[in-house]
Amino acid sequence: MAFRLAAKDDRAVLVKGDGIFDLEKSGGGTFSSDPMEAIARHGELHAVAAGLGDTPDGKLDENELGICVPRPQKIFGIGLNYRAHAEESKMEIPPNPLVFAKFNNCLAAGNADVIVFGPTTDYEAELVLVMGSRARDIPEDEAWDHIAGLTCGQDVSERGTQFASKPPHFDLGKSFDTFGPIGPCVVSHDQFEDPANLHLTCDLNGERKQDTQTDDLIFDIPKLVSYISAICTFEPGDLIFTGTPSGVGFMAGTFLAPGDVLTTTIEGIGTMTNKCVAWPR
Ligand code: ZN
């Protein structure tokens, strides 16, 4: 049975309908409260999810959920991984995945505020892979076995910082504090008929800006997992932001401003609502 793993008050919880179940309690003491342990033992979560009763420990309020993967060892981002986005960016389609790092300080909860640090702060709605095992040299046909689940993400990007040097350096412009909200929960991929083909949308102040199926990736999920694992050993909880479709703000010159509301939805996973706020300096 599929599971939906979230975090509340720094504790792992399973979501069922509109209820949440504390994992340490539901697991009969076999799990700790740590969401990172839950991800590393994701294979066992299916049975716990199947055994949940009808009396949750609390009602689901997505505004109360924390960061569903709070301490990944590594966060990878993929640039220019949708053809239409590469074209709108006027950049060549890369011959191999364009991989950059987002640093952990950028992580934020699914409904957290995003701080607008500069005048050219932009949104990028993305499907995020949550790796589930310690592994390297993963063959493409085994990639899904090493993925604990899927979640929504925003790869928020300060374009001025991204293009401040030549060639552009992606890592820093995408790693300001709060520039990596993920959530609302990690959903195991057995939830989906085809986890590689999900509907992803991004609305800015209620206006649809990005709308794609995730099977439109230039480098698909097995390719990304295999490619990166030939270089870096994955650890449970490592994240891969798989790239954003067309419709980001910078080609139109429309950037995020305090007061804006970003809504990111992936079919079967859920919705993140992020309010943009001013940098309090
Ligand atoms: Zn991105």
Kindly describe this structure.
The protein has 281 residues and is an alpha+beta fold. The chain is 15% helix and 32% strand. The strands form 3 sheets. Strands 1, 2, 3, 4, 5, 6, 7, 10, 11, 13 and 16 form an 11-stranded mixed sheet that branches. A 5-stranded mixed sheet has the order 8-18-17-14-15, with no helix packed on it. The protein is globular, with a radius of gyration of 18 Å. The mean pLDDT is 96. Residues 77, 124, 126, 155, 241, 243-244 line the site of zinc ion.
**What overall form do the CA principal axes indicate?**
globular
> How far apart are the termini?
47 Å
- Give the biggest beta sheet: 11 strands, mixed
Assembly status: single chain
Bound molecules: zinc ion
- The CATH homologous superfamily of the largest domain is called Fumarylacetoacetase-like, C-terminal domain
CATH-defined architecture of the largest domain: Alpha-Beta Complex
Write the layout of secondary structure elements.
Blueprint: E1 4-8, E2 11-16, E3 19-22, H1 23-26, H2 35-40, H3 42-50, E4 58-59, E5 75-79, H4 83-88, E6 98-101, E7 107-108, E8 114-116, E9 121-122, E10 125-131, E11 147-154, E12 157-158, H5 159-162, H6 170-173, E13 180-187, E14 199-204, E15 207-213, H7 221-229, E16 239-241, E17 261-266, E18 270-278
Parallel strand pairs: 5-16, 7-13, 8-18
Antiparallel strand pairs: 1-2, 1-13, 2-3, 3-4, 5-6, 9-12, 10-11, 10-16, 11-13, 14-15, 14-17, 17-18
The chain binds zinc ion.
Zinc ion (ZN) is lined by residues 77, 124, 126, 155, 241, 243-244.
